[in-house]
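hey all, quick one before standup. I had two proteins in the batch that finished overnight and I want to keep them in one place so we stop losing track of which output belongs to which input. First protein below, input sequence then structure tokens straight from the run.
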Amino acid sequence: MNDLLVDLKPLSNDWRLAKGIDPERLPAHIAIIMDGNGRWASRRNLPRVAGHTAGIEPVRIVIETCARIGIQALTLYAFSIENWKRPRTEVDTLWRLLRLYLRRELPEIMRNGIQFTCMGRLDGLPSPVRQELEAAMDSTASNRGMRLNVAVNYSGRAELVDALNAIIEDARLEGSLKDLHITEESISSRLYTAGLPDPDLLIRTSGEMRISNFLLWQIAYAELYVTETLWPDFRRTDLLQAIIEYQKRDRRFGGLNAGPQRADADEWLEAVGVTAR
């Protein structure tokens, strides 16, 4: 957190927000559905590709801010399997922008010790894109800072299918297929995010109230934060506000927080005339 504060103007809005964050209760893993590029462009009578281009700056800001405040992992939803349905020119532009981002930002990623990884069906990407992603992952593999995880050609349902198929294939190779017993742990260990903590906070921009096939298994207990802000307009202030809101939440994971109960359950049931048989 101090790394961020030293770069902020004292008493500025971002400085006040950062000071209000408890560094002991930061989300270990933040996931973001970056939505609204097309609407941002449409409202300005610009082509959709202009929105995607404008969406590069908030990516840079979010990565830098998360790294400086001490977030362990950041997962960004960049391209879904369903996005192949979009016009070919738009898809090609997205690949060009991704490659451009990597070329421009890789030196900064290295300076900050960030480990860059991708998840999804990477073998379905155009060869030049896949090669560039793999080169970036290789270059940062030994970094020990924040894990920057980009979902590319990704689908939550496809991830679960791939995980289950991997479990079955492992059992077949081991000759234990007839005794196969699938557990939550065996599924988690085959997910694209194996080795990462599940997201504590899922942010979605543009106000849409849906998950869009993203991290369906991993976000079972994530705190959801939806903002009307379109992704190209998302800035450090928006991220800090999301973290502050996260820290206000009462996370119980299906249980109850410790604290005095108003009455013993059996006493209350007896008082209202309900008795055990």
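OK second protein, same deal, sequence then tokens:
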Amino acid sequence: MRRVTAIALLALILACAKHEAAPPKTYVDSKRGVQFEYPSDWTAEELKEQNVLLLSSPVQEANWQTNIFIELRKDLDAAQTADQRLATLADNLARKKSGFALQSSRLFTHKSGMPAGELIYTHTSQGVPLTERELVLWLRDGRTLFVTGSAVTSLSTKYASQLNVVFDSVRPRE
């Protein structure tokens, strides 16, 4: 009887134990001159026709697959202040995205030491309500790195820590 109780107790402990997430992978993107970490179960795919790198969650929920797009562009607005650049980006997004609603906007110094801007907004894509986070890093070489994370609004809290792995670690390549 004690053996059965011990086995049952062990099974209960194992069922309730938190499983540690695997350590993130490191991606060195020589095309964009950046590197970052991303969740180990996500995939990274170069979309050559769009000139972006796509990181995707392995799970599709609520008709959407949480993802991150990474794109490098030449900075065409170098004469504008950072505030003006971020406001212009928000205006452009509002024109392009159905049901766009800006949740927050801020300027800050990114963990990489680079000047950065961030927009968090909601909109609808293909009938799916999304929350997106757009990180803008103004690189020293006159280019701008855009990191855009997208999740179903009702699941955005669930995926926040996974998105943060990339957002917090992205930096110019060493």
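Flagging for whoever picks this up: Residues 21-172 form a domain with the Protein Transport Mog1p; Chain A fold (CATH 3.40.1000.10). The first strand starts at residue 25 and ends at 29.
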